[in-house]
Amino acid sequence: MLNNIVVFFSQIEGPIYEPGGVVSWMGEVNDFVAGSKATVLLLPKDAFGNNVTSASERQNIHNFDVHATTLNGSNINLLDISNKGWNEFGYVCIEFVVVTAGHLSFHIKHKNDSLIGSPLPLTVHPEALDVANCLAHWSTETNSFQLFSRMETFVSQRDKFGNLVPGLHEFDFEVMQERLSLPLTDLQYKEVSPGIQSFSFMVVKPGNFILIISAFKEMIMDMPYDFSIYTGKFLTFIKSRLLFWPLTFS
């Protein structure tokens, strides 16, 4: 009969079992502005759920598929995806830059298996308005309009990544003829959807003109716009409407 026998033993973790890894946001931060860097933490595990550390597993962990989607499943771009390796707390850090605004999901998989915690929810907000990246869209190919007709345009307010920026941002509208600025009749504007602003006005003088849409002394894209106003036998109402397909939160 054996009495008072003390057995000492040690146990080491097994090799990395990629699908058993646990993912989370660093600092539990999952709310970003477009252009910001996001960091996901990966806690590697073996097949029995034991933590795997850099001391026992020094190889670079790279056998993962990293991507992001909208809530309806469409893929979006992530920039500068990089594996930063192990940190002092035993996590592997994965960094990337988010550029698409919306309510999104971040996925990390090994082959076809999602890691524990994936997908991770995240929200990305538009960056500040970039005047030079704002754009007006016309639905008609003509740039000739009948006298007293109302011209209407929809301006998409965008950040430098092309995300729509909500709010009623102020723009300057100027119609010029032979370097002389002309007054606009009945200028109206309103936000018709988040990030889309409608502008309409009338020109009560025939001739050739240019339209300039700007803000803070900077023109939006595709400016100036050349157009002409003509007189006709019948002064019918002609409305030029812009079409725009906005990027929206899913």
Detailed description of the structure:
- Helix content is 0%, strand content 45%.
- Strand 14 and strand 15 (180-182) form a beta hairpin.
- The chain is built from no helices and 21 strands.
- With 250 residues, the protein is mainly beta.
- It folds into 2 domains: 18-125, Immunoglobulin-like (Sandwich); 131-240, Immunoglobulin-like (Sandwich), CATH 2.60.40.
- This is Immunoglobulin-like protein.
- It comes from Helianthus annuus.
Task: Write a concise keyword list for the protein shown above.
Ig_E-set; Immunoglobulin-like; Ig-like_fold; 2 domains; 45% strand; disordered C terminus; 6-stranded mixed sheet; 250 residues; mainly beta
CATH superfamily of the largest domain: Immunoglobulins
Helical percentage: under 10%
Named at the architecture level, the CATH assignment of the largest domain is: Sandwich
User: What's the overall geometry?
Assistant: rod-shaped
Distance between the termini: 71 Å
Q: What Rg, in angstroms, do the CA atoms define?
A: 29 Å
Question: In brief, what are we looking at here?
Answer:
The protein has 250 residues and is mainly beta. It has no helices and 21 strands.
What is the secondary structure topology, with strand pairs?
Elements lengths: L21 E4 L5 E3 L3 E7 L21 E6 L4 E2 L1 E9 L5 E7 L3 E9 L2 E2 L5 E6 L9 E3 L6 E3 L3 E7 L15 E6 L2 E3 L2 E9 L2 E7 L4 E9 L2 E2 L5 E6 L8 E2 L10
Parallel strand pairs: 2-10, 12-20, 13-21
Antiparallel strand pairs: 1-3, 3-7, 4-5, 4-8, 6-7, 8-9, 8-10, 11-13, 13-17, 14-15, 14-18, 16-17, 18-19, 18-20
InterPro entries: Ig-like_fold, Ig_E-set, Ig_GEX2_N
Protein name: Immunoglobulin-like protein
